[in-house]
């Protein structure tokens, strides 16, 4: 009889510039992995921290920059999530563009590709390649924050509260895009049986993409603040980060990631 699946929630958000040439090596995508049994406890702890600094639990980091207590709140949240958090913290940092040099048809600097490639690499690693989940049945609830990139003339830039009826072309990180990406990867990984333990299942209870400042989910606010902290305080606190999963988007790491994961899983299977 197959084991009951572990139920995990994934929340993900970004901070920084990704489109065109106006990018930053501080740009990150970060997120939380939370098992269902941890949801209530973590929610109460987050609410207590918000109450301590008199911060709205449904806050959006961009709306609170002028709040004198917000920086202290964000720093304590970052410290807690890195060291005493019972879930898992993940982050992928931008390091360099490399696809054009390798002759790829799609380049990072075109349209919204840089963000899409980074987000895809992170989701692929977590769901399909992370050795910690190799021998487990997992039921996922995927809730990344949405991202909208808007064409303004020849430039691509980040857009909030975009009027989708406007003539500008809109590129979105939506639940449809996320769902399609995951379905494609499910088909691709079916050809790599050594990555899938016999009888293991990967299922999805939810695939969505939410607008951070319009969501009532406090974990959406939490991950928005974590991503913003990685970007804003990078020199001061990212060196202290003890993220469970820490990737870098560059040629060397991207090319070796798949093979390194296979070797890790092979070593685990042989013990």
* Structural class by helix and strand composition: alpha/beta
Helix content: 25-40%
Q: Categorize the overall geometry.
A: globular
Q: Average pLDDT, to the nearest integer?
A: 78
Number of helices: 7
Secondary structure: number of strands: 9
In spatial order, strands of the major sheet run 8-4-1-2-3-9
**N-to-C SSE series?**
EEHHEHEEEEHEHHEH
Instruction: Provide the β-strand percentage band.
Output: 15-25%
Our Rg estimate from Cα atoms comes to: 19 Å
Q: Report, as a whole number of angstroms, the end-to-end distance.
A: 24 Å
Main pleated-sheet profile: 6 strands, mixed
Low-confidence stretches: none
What are its keywords?
three-stranded antiparallel beta sheet, 37% helix, 9 strands, 271 residues, alpha/beta, globular
List the helices and strands and how they pair.
Layout: E1 6-15, E2 28-35, H1 39-53, H2 70-83, E3 88-94, H3 113-129, E4 138-144, E5 147-152, E6 155-158, E7 170-173, H4 175-189, E8 202-207, H5 218-232, H6 234-237, E9 245-249, H7 251-270
Parallel strand pairs: 1-4, 3-9, 4-8
Antiparallel strand pairs: 1-2, 2-3, 5-6, 5-7
Helix pairs in contact: 1-2, 2-5, 3-4
Describe the protein.
This protein has 271 residues and is an alpha/beta fold. Helix content is 37%, strand content 21%. It contains seven helices and nine strands; from the N terminus they run E-E-H-H-E-H-E-E-E-E-H-E-H-H-E-H. The chain has a six-stranded mixed sheet with strand order 8-4-1-2-3-9. A three-stranded antiparallel sheet has the order 6-5-7. Helix 1 runs antiparallel to helix 2 and helix 2 packs across helix 5. The chain is globular, with a radius of gyration of 19 Å. It starts with 5 loop residues before the first strand and ends with a helix. The mean pLDDT is 78.
């Amino acid at each position: 009889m197959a084991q009951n699946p572990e139920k995990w929630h994934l929340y993900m958000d970004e901070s920084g510039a990704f489109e065109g040439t106006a990018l930053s090596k501080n740009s990150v995508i970060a997120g939380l992995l939370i098992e269902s049994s941890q949801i209530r406890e973590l929610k109460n702890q987050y609410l207590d921290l918000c109450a301590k600094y008199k911060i709205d639990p449904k806050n959006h980091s961009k709306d609170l920059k002028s709040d004198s207590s917000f920086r202290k709140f964000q720093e304590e949240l970052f410290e807690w999530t890195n060291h005493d958090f019972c879930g898992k913290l993940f982050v992928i940092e931008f390091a360099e563009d490399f696809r054009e040099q390798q002759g790829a048809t799609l380049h990072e600097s075109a349209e919204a590709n840089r963000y899409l490639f980074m987000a895809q690499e992170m989701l692929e690693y977590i769901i399909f390649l992370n050795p910690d989940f190799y021998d487990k049945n997992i039921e996922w609830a995927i809730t990344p924050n949405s991202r909208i990139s808007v064409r303004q003339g020849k430039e691509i830039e980040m857009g909030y509260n975009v009027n989708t009826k406007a003539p500008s072309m809109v590129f979105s990180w939506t639940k449809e895009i996320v769902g399609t990406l995951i379905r494609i990867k499910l088909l691709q990984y079916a050809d790599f049986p050594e990555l899938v333990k016999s009888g293991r299942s990967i299922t999805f209870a939810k695939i969505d993409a939410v607008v951070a400042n319009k969501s009532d989910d406090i974990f959406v606010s939490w991950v928005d603040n974590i991503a913003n902290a990685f970007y804003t305080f990078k020199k001061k606190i990212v060196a202290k980060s003890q993220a469970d999963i820490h990737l870098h988007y560059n040629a060397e790491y991207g090319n070796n990631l798949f093979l390194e994961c296979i070797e890790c899983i092979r070593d685990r299977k042989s013990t």
